[in-house]
Amino acid sequence: MTDEQPSQDRPLQLIVMRHAKSDWGDHKLSDHERPLNARGNRDAPAMAGWMATNGLFPDVILSSSSTRTQQTVAALLECWSSKLNTAPTVSFTDALYLAIPEQIAATIRSDHCGARSLMIVAHNPGMSSIVSQLSGQSIEMPTAAVAVFDWPSQDGPGEWSRFSLNRQLSLTYLMRPKALGHASKDET
């Protein structure tokens, strides 16, 4: 480990990402089946690159089971594959599909997997709502946006089982594809 802090003294890290931009072109597909569009296929790797540059590699990724979230996660993993010795553990769950913050929090509590760094990839309005609640400020999460929180931990990864929306966390990063110069003017 290259960090100066011993592992048990490092805060837990929660990475929240809204899926990349999806395609609305095929009206025969259900919402759950919609894939990424060209912009989404460009923005997801760009955000993965930004995360890699900042050393933001999760131990575990909990993702909605929708096609667009699965494709977003696949783009992240492909970008990180040459940078990591061990890929993050990934779990796709229907519980995060269009989930409200309370359901997202319940998923975090039940599927923490002993991770120091946990990533959630899901949908709005849940992503904007949970980021706003945890930061104590109103934050919109456009497609492919990433918010990173630090949570000082007394008990290490076991503390995920006590995750609560009532606890304000320290927002350490907030990045949108548009800020990287990879998205069009319409970022929603």
From TrEMBL:
The record's annotation in InterPro entries points to: His_Pase_superF_clade-1, His_PPase_superfam
What highest taxon heads this organism's lineage? Bacteria
Q: Check the record and name the Pfam families matching this protein.
A: His_Phos_1
Q: Which annotated residues bind substrate?
A: 68
Protein name as catalogued: Phosphohistidine phosphatase
Please report the organism this UniProt entry assigns to the protein: Stieleria varia
